[in-house]
Design goal:
single chain; mainly alpha; two-stranded antiparallel sheet; 23 helices; 2 strands
Length: 539
């Protein structure tokens, strides 16, 4: 079952949200496979006696991506950038051909072939990660790297909305949410034996744990590189600021080049990148396969899986040609920013809105009336937006500090700007909470259901997460021993108390997180992104 069908089963008007998640995930594979193509090139080069990336890794990556061979000219009249000497990169093209062949072989038989692939591409990278951590622990400067990873944080960066957007985009991508991946794969599970609540906890915790382990492997090597750099008076590099492809293809290979037998370490590192990346790539392509087989034409024709997978892989390969030119790295960066960061945040906002605010809204109408529900829903969103806008408008620095200012001046400016941020936050929250309270009161006053109910029941009918409760009830009863424990019923003392300590249940906080916390947070982040793009357009 695809995400599009899931959204449509809640409300036919929500199919577009499901379609957006599927197409966004599939579009990400177009440029994601380019990154895996780079990894393929580095993997093959690691077998050479004289590894090309051992010396001057920055120049070598520029040569591989050809990012230094294209010249850019800004046209002030048309407000556009023009590319010159935009040549085709045959090495990367061969790399993405290999990647798309691997994707085809991974999913051409559906979950049958995928099941065999993940038996190798999941445990093997974990083993390699442990090996890299153990080896990195013995490097000079590894302790300082771990200290920078776990202790030395720059808390001022939390004020930067770009950090939050990138973090959310990374978490969404890492977990595969808002891309249709979870929906597509979960549709193959048993409808009577799958412990959904336990799977959710296992996936989230294991993803976080592996990410934390990966951080140790990375920062040990970065600490070693920084240690060597600090001993060289001519070196001014700060390796801790490396990120994204600069980290994977410049900083980390530089560290591997300093080890004994760099060929071995290069092979296992880039092999690990390919195996981890191919899992993500074929899962996003699998979503599109599931969507096509699940739509009306797929249900009518019922094609074999490989006949759907093949054209999907061919289209993905052809779409990736855009990134095989010298200008490809520029397009990759821009599209990734707006699709993986902006797009995923927006889709996440809409999915929370669909489940928390639209699904089962008809039940609310019956209990308190259409006017009451719409008054509350519209009032909540309206005052949340107004409060956010007011806070963003007020949150302007009162002191602009020049780069050559003294430390005392910088401290005074930080204090003054911090006070301003506090005032902006207070004003925004005040408007939101007052507006939320007024909307709730007015919704209670105008409520008029089909049957008379008490004040508490009326308030819950207006403010509750009825759609999420419906999903919780279905999920919590899948593997429940009904003869022993009885049927799980939402919003009853016995069932909700059991959900607090049982691993196979979603507790009541799940509804609050979906309808209020996650929705409000993602909406605020979206507004903050809009302000940031107006003030400083990306690139």
């Amino acid at each position: 079952v695809s995400t599009q069908s899931t959204g449509g089963s809640m409300d036919p008007r929500l199919r577009g949200i499901g379609l957006a998640s599927v197409f966004a995930g599939y579009t990400i594979t177009f440029y994601y496979c380019i990154i895996l193509g780079y990894a393929c090139i580095y993997f093959v080069e690691s077998f050479h006696k004289d590894i090309p990336w051992m010396t001057n890794t920055s120049d070598h990556f520029d040569a591989i991506s050809m990012s230094g061979s294209a010249s850019f000219t800004y046209n002030e009249t048309d407000n556009t950038w023009e590319f010159a000497d935009n040549t085709f990169n045959w090495k990367v093209f061969v790399g993405i051909i290999v990647i798309w062949i691997l994707i085809f072989l991974s999913i051409f038989k559906g979950v049958k072939s995928t099941g065999w692939v993940v038996k190798f591409t999941v445990p093997l990278p974990l083993l390699i990660l442990v090996i890299l951590i153990i080896r990195g622990a013995f490097l000079e400067g590894a302790g300082d790297g771990i200290e920078n990873y776990l202790i030395k944080w720059d808390s001022s960066m939390l004020n930067d909305p770009v950090i939050w957007t990138k973090a959310i985009g990374q978490v969404f991508f890492s977990l595969g949410v808002c891309m249709g991946v979870m929906t597509a794969y979960s549709s193959h599970n048993s409808k009577t034996k799958t412990n959904v609540a336990m799977s959710e906890k296992a996936i989230s915790l294991s993803d976080t744990g592996i990410a934390l382990l990966g951080g140790f492997a990375i920062y040990e090597v970065l600490g070693h590189m920084q240690f060597n750099c600090d001993k060289d008076p001519a070196c001014t590099e700060n390796y801790y600021k490396q990120a994204s492809m600069g980290l994977a293809f410049i900083a980390y290979p530089s560290g591997l080049a300093t080890l004994e037998a760099p060929q071995f370490w290069g092979i296992i590192f880039f092999g690990c990148l390919i195996m981890l990346g191919i899992d993500s790539a074929f899962s996003m392509a699998e979503c599109m396969v599931t969507f096509i087989k699940d739509c009306w034409i797929g249900l009518r024709i019922r094609p074999k899986t490989w006949k759907v997978v093949l054209p999907i892989c061919i289209v993905g390969l052809l779409a990736g040609l855009l990134y095989c030119f010298s200008s490809g790295i520029v397009y990759l960066d821009i599209i990734d920013n707006y699709l993986n960061n902006w797009g995923m945040v927006l889709i996440g906002t809409l999915e929370c809105f669909a489940v928390g605010w639209v699904y089962k809204i008809g039940d609310q109408y019956k209990k308190v009336g259409r006017l009451s529900v719409l008054t509350y829903n519209i009032g909540f969103v309206f005052f949340l937006l107004v409060g956010t806008i007011v806070a963003l408008v007020m949150d302007e620095p009162v002191m602009i500090v020049p780069a050559d200012a003294t430390q005392s001046v910088k401290d005074d400016a930080e204090k003054a700007n911090g006070i301003r941020q506090g005032e902006a936050l207070g004003a925004g929250l005040g408007i939101f909470f007052v507006g939320w309270l007024l909307s709730t009161c007015f919704a209670v006053v105008v409520s008029k259901g089909q049957e008379p109910i008490g004040f508490g029941a009326k308030l819950w009918a207006i403010m509750g997460w009825h759609g999420v409760d419906d999903l919780r009830t279905k999920a919590n009863n899948i593997v429940r021993n009904k003869d022993k424990d009885g049927v799980w019923v939402a919003n009853t003392w016995k069932s909700e108390f059991q959900a607090l300590y049982r691993h196979d249940c979603f507790c009541i906080a799940f509804g609050f997180l979906i309808k209020y916390f996650s929705y409000a947070l993602l909406l605020v982040v979206t507004c903050t992104n809009i302000k940031g793009d107006f003030q400083k357009p990306y690139n």
